[in-house]
């Protein structure tokens, strides 16, 4: 993973916090969060622990002038970012990191996320389609669909977003 490219893409995500109250850069918090989750972190405390353990590595790409933020700060900041902007940032980063040749096969698959439904609010389960590079063993992108039956109509949108013209 090219984290320098990630840091470039993170700049599209606006920081809505009041600047005089900011102790940790948004780019540092997102770098920490992404690295921790890719490494298997499953919650805010895991992300904080990852940061404390890997601070020297993280400082190669971010400032972390005030150290690693506490888990409450990480959760609060991440919950305030625009999900569409984050998705755009992540997809663009994956596109920049994705090297391919004619032997790469892009697998498209739809999944229903377990326990994503909410009967009390009459919300159905979340359905997601993913594009996976078999050569790089990496998910290149995902799109949420409204219903499982909409997978077919969402696939062209996913392929256009990834710009993988000419791949099998």
Automatic annotation (TrEMBL):
PANTHER family assigned to the protein according to its UniProt record, in alphabetical order: H REPEAT-ASSOCIATED PREDICTED TRANSPOSASE, PROTEIN YBFL-RELATED
Coiled coil segments of this chain: none
Name used for this protein in its record: ISAs1 family transposase
Protein family membership: Belongs to the transposase 11 family.
Domain of life: Bacteria
Organism for this UniProt entry: Salmonella enterica subsp. indica serovar 45:a:e,n,x
Residue span, H repeat-associated protein N-terminal domain: 8-94
BP GO annotations: DNA transposition
Domain Transposase IS4-like: 103-165
Entry's Gene Ontology molecular function annotations: DNA binding; transposase activity
Pfam family, one: DDE_Tnp_1_assoc
């Amino acid at each position: 993973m090219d984290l320098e490219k990630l840091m470039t893409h993170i700049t599209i995500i606006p920081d809505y916090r009041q600047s005089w109250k900011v102790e940790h850069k948004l780019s540092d918090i997102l770098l920490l969060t992404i690295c921790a989750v890719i490494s298997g972190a499953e919650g805010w405390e895991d992300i904080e622990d990852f940061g404390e353990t890997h601070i020297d590595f993280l400082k190669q790409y971010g400032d972390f002038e005030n150290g690693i933020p506490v888990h409450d700060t990480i959760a609060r900041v991440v919950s305030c970012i625009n999900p569409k902007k984050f998705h755009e940032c992540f997809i663009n980063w994956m596109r920049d990191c994705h090297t391919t040749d004619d032997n790469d096969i892009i697998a498209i698959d739809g999944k229903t996320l377990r326990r994503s439904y909410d009967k009390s609010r009459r919300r159905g389960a979340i359905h997601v389609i993913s594009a996976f590079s078999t050569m790089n063993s990496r998910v290149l992108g995902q799109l949420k669909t409204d219903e499982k039956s909409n997978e077919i109509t969402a696939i062209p949108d996913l392929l256009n977003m990834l710009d993988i013209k000419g791949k099998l």
